[in-house]
Design a protein that fits this description.
Structural class of chain A: alpha/beta
Oligomer: heterodimer
Radius of gyration of chain B: 25 Å
Largest sheet of chain B: 7 strands, mixed
Helix content of chain A: 40-55%
Strand order of the largest sheet of chain A: 1-7-6-5-4-2-3
Strand content of chain B: 15-25%
Strand content of chain A: 15-25%
Largest sheet of chain A: 7 strands, mixed
Number of helices of chain A: 12
Number of helices of chain B: 16
Number of strands of chain A: 11
Distance between the termini of chain B: 35 Å
Shape of chain A: globular
Order of helices and strands of chain A: EHEHEHEHEHEEHHHHEEHEEHH
Structural class of chain B: alpha/beta
């Protein structure tokens, strides 16, 4: 029987849940692109953590294979795979059906963060498991933040009765913290009822995502790096300058100009030094069912214009080379003239 | 420090031993039973090893009805407690539609902002209609409204510091901010907007010296930072000085180089002991040894001091001497969230690097409005003197209640003026007995056991509010006295009965 535990802060959900179930010697296999909350939970759990390449199932398979064959003792240890349904840092969607197949083959448990997929993926918005047709019982622990589709604050964690009962005394974010304000809990309940009773909202959102993808598919200087069904549309730079700082400054300039000139609010990636995720930075667009078609078309046009102005401006290096060649030629012409005169 | 009486210690150990033995017996019979049934989790290591959730299954579940009681009204002086029943010996509890009106001694509603307030609530409802419950974004992206900006200025002014940063949850404030301030690795920070000058911050060689009874959020933040952690005896400045001297003399582990940054973390009021921190002595020691002071005022902000400005005001410490002041709004302001106040440079740096600011959803706008309105009421800026009345009332109520409990013979912890009053229970059987007896008489108290307190030091924690009237407190004292007699928790004086009757008549007159 599934039960649920509610916490009062979105980011503390994962970093309270993971340390509960991981003790000395346990092994956790996590995606390298997970967000800071999960990274903090992994660090606080002080266990062996192995990262696999972002959303790469072959890398996951080889990692699991390595762990199970090299370490004979690992058969008696608790083993977890930690992944996000829709990655906040890249907009990719985890292939849950393959993860579940691997988990059953190698006997791992899955902890899934469904913050950005709840109320978005699946026919009735129930998340990644409905989207891939995987029964929810196969996923051991599901956590989610409610500040996304449900438009309230806080987060929750669900699992079977024993897992949740154990967390009532050992999840530090639950035990040592004040509870959520009641009006936010009622807002969450009402949001879930509205999603249940209005499945056309999900259809509209999916249409909006498709429209935005169509509009941005030919953007110059940037490319779409997220999954085509993900509500987070992630635009990454085609040619990175090599320095994260320079890229971030350029993206920030683009976002500022989009706001000033076209009243379009987009967001560039933000990185704290505590965040170990090394994925590419980019511009994130969060699609909503409330956006109209004209809004999205206007947004795509604006971004395409800004990208061509800011990213395709003459390459400074190219300019330097051409000017150098020009002046070199000019200098050599004057030297030859001098020779002639002399 | 709490010293448990000898006989009580023996009986407490005996009780736990008995419970443990019974629990093991039941586990053993369960294992035999389960051996017959099939298990489809073959090949998986069990998610909870037997000894990890032993305490929960065999001890906590028996008295589960004393914890997590749902309420169905605002947490005012009187609250509606929902009745629950269980069909399987307390393993699962089901709610009924009935509720009982009880005197509320469990909520941290120090100034009475936990329920409808004539100034705050209309403003909050307006802001809910204008801004909606959530900003659906982090502060740096699209989650800052005019209310958030006003809130940070208001908090900074109230606390007495140049600037402040507000996060959505008090627990996350400590866990996300301490790793940003101190650690063990060197890094370069990339400023993500505005300023283009790259700055390099060296965080090598950080040392955190923390009070032994600090809250779990501080412990988690300190562990997450990776800095070296040392602990000093609870509220003992002399021991803090000794630890500082030793650590500065030894230097960093292995290399013995001098520490780059030392931070001493203390709390204003310790929530499980009700004691007020000895701040003037600790600040003078930190100044002498050049360590930073981090003060967590979760329970003291808004509750103590002449204008509610916390432990600095109460003890006459200049706020400029405390480097980082942290607090939460859950207790005295009737809202949620936490803040950090400090110098402008510090707050600017936190706004660029703190994960709670960059990644977590921002504090809900109506909650932010509640805090602003509550601060205005406390300072009298709403045009009335309700704030000053509330502060005077909570001081009066706390001192009266504490004095009466001590006269009755209870072992009450905490200092004068502190609204948190833990009454020691010790014995595990007294936890549910006291709680259920009080509930029968319509008084809702909070009892605390392991893991929030050490195993042997279970207690009932009373939180006094400014909205309690004198009659409420007298009724509470009568009920607690009766429950105390039944459960035998009047540990002082040695022969309480005869003196008790005489004292009681004097008190009720």
């Amino acid at each position: 029987m599934l039960r649920q535990l509610e916490l009062s802060c979105s980011v503390s959900t994962m970093f309270s849940t993971i340390p509960c179930f991981c003790k000395r010697g346990d092994i956790i296999v996590a995606d390298e692109g997970v967000h800071w909350g999960i990274q903090n939970g992994l660090q606080l759990s002080r266990r062996t953590i192995v990262y696999f390449k972002h959303n790469d199932m072959d890398s996951l398979r080889s990692t699991l294979e390595k762990i199970m064959t090299k370490n004979k003792r690992s058969k008696n240890l608790r083993r977890y795979i930690v992944a996000e349904a829709v990655y906040q840092n890249s907009g990719q969607i985890a292939p849950l059906d393959e993860i579940v197949k691997l988990k059953e083959k190698y006997r791992f448990r899955v902890i899934l963060d469904e913050s950005n997929s709840l109320g978005v993926l699946g026919r009735s918005g129930r998340g990644l498991s409905e989207h891939h047709g995987v029964p929810i019982e196969k996923i051991d622990v599901v956590t989610a933040a409610m500040g996304h589709a449900l438009a309230t604050e806080g987060g929750f964690c669900t699992g079977n009765a024993r897992i949740i009962d154990y967390q009532r005394l050992s999840s530090s974010g639950y035990v040592f913290s004040a509870s959520l304000p009641p009006y936010l809990a009622s807002a969450a309940i009402t949001a879930i009822d509205v999603i249940d009773q209005n499945p056309e909202l999900l259809v509209k959102m999916k249409q909006n995502i498709a429209l935005l993808w169509k509009g941005l598919s030919d953007i110059k200087g940037m490319s779409l790096a997220s999954n085509h069904e993900s509500p987070i549309v992630f635009l990454k730079l085609e040619k990175s300058s090599g320095s994260t700082k320079e890229d971030l400054l350029l993206l920030e300039k683009m976002a500022d100009r989009a706001l000033k000139e076209d009243s379009l609010l987009v967001v560039s990636s933000k990185k704290s030094f505590l965040d170990k995720c090394r994925l590419l930075v980019g511009i994130k667009l969060f699609v909503s069912a409330g956006h109209s078609d004209t809004d999205l078309i206007k947004a795509s046009e604006s971004l395409k214009r800004l990208a061509s102005e800011l990213l395709l401006s003459p390459n400074l290096f190219f300019l330097f080379i051409t000017s150098y060649v020009f002046f070199f030629n000019l200098l050599s012409y004057f030297i030859i003239l001098d020779d002639h005169v002399a | 420090m709490i010293t448990i009486p000898y006989l009580t210690a023996v009986s407490t150990y005996f009780s736990y031993g008995l419970l443990f033995a019974f629990g093991q017996l039941r586990d053993y019979s369960r294992r035999i039973f389960d051996w017959w049934s099939t298990n489809n989790l073959h090949g998986y290591a069990p998610i909870c090893l037997a000894h990890e959730d032993f305490y929960i299954r065999r001890l906590y579940h028996r008295i589960q009805d004393c914890f997590g009681r749902p309420i169905s009204s605002a947490p005012d002086a009187w609250v509606d407690v929902v009745e629950r029943f269980s069909n399987d010996n307390n393993k699962t509890l089901k709610r009924t539609t009935k509720s009982t009106r009880c005197l509320n001694l469990g909520s941290y509603n120090y100034l009475g902002f936990g329920s409808y307030d004539e100034y705050c609530t209309p403003l909050v409802i307006d802001s809910l209609k204008k801004f909606s419950p959530s900003t659906c974004s982090s502060r740096v992206d699209a989650g800052t409204t005019s209310v958030h900006a006003e809130l940070e200025e208001c908090v900074a002014k109230y606390v007495g510091k140049p600037a402040a940063i507000v996060t959505g949850m008090g627990y996350a404030t400590n866990s996300a901010i301490i790793p940003v301030l101190i650690g063990k690795v060197c890094f370069c920070c990339y400023l993500s907007c505005g300023d283009v000058t790259p700055k390099t911050y060296v965080l090598q060689g950080g040392l955190i010296i923390s009070d032994s009874l600090n809250h779990t959020s501080i412990v988690n933040g300190a562990r997450g930072s990776g800095a070296t952690i040392r602990v000093f005896q609870h509220n003992t400045p002399a021991h803090l000085e000794r630890v500082l001297k030793e650590q500065i003399a030894e230097g960093q582990p292995r290399t013995h180089r001098p520490w780059k940054k030392i931070m001493v973390v203390v709390e204003g009021i310790y929530s499980m002991e009700g004691e007020i921190c000895q701040l003037p002595e600790i600040v003078s020691i930190c100044k002498k040894y050049k360590a930073y002071v981090y003060l967590d005022e979760a329970h003291s902000i808004g509750a103590i001091g002449k204008t509610g400005r916390g432990v600095c005001e109460l003890l006459g410490v200049d706020t400029a001497d405390v480097d980082i002041m942290m607090g939460t709004f859950t207790k005295s302001f009737g809202s949620c969230g936490g803040y950090i106040a400090g110098s402008k440079d510090l707050i600017q740096y936190l706004k660029y690097q703190c994960p709670a600011h960059l990644y977590a959803t921002s504090i809900s706008t109506p909650s932010a409005q509640q805090i602003i309105s509550a601060v205005k009421v406390i300072l009298g800026e709403d045009g009335s003197n309700r704030g000053a009345q509330k502060l005077a009332r909570i001081r009066e109520n706390s001192n009266f209640f504490r004095a009466e409990l001590q006269k009755m013979g209870f072992e009450v912890l905490g200092d004068n003026d502190s609204p948190v009053m833990p009454i020691m229970l010790y014995n595990p059987a007294k936890i549910p007995a006291f709680s259920r007896e009080c509930l029968r008489e319509n008084v809702a108290v909070v009892v605390v056991g392991f893991p929030a307190t050490p195993l042997l030091l279970a207690r009932a924690r009373i939180c006094i509010s400014a909205s309690h009237s004198r009659e409420d407190l007298i009724k509470a004292l009568q009920v607690i006295s009766k429950a105390g007699d039944l459960t035998g928790i009047k540990y002082f004086p040695a022969a309480p009965k005869k003196q008790e009757e005489v004292k009681d008549t004097i008190k009720l007159d």
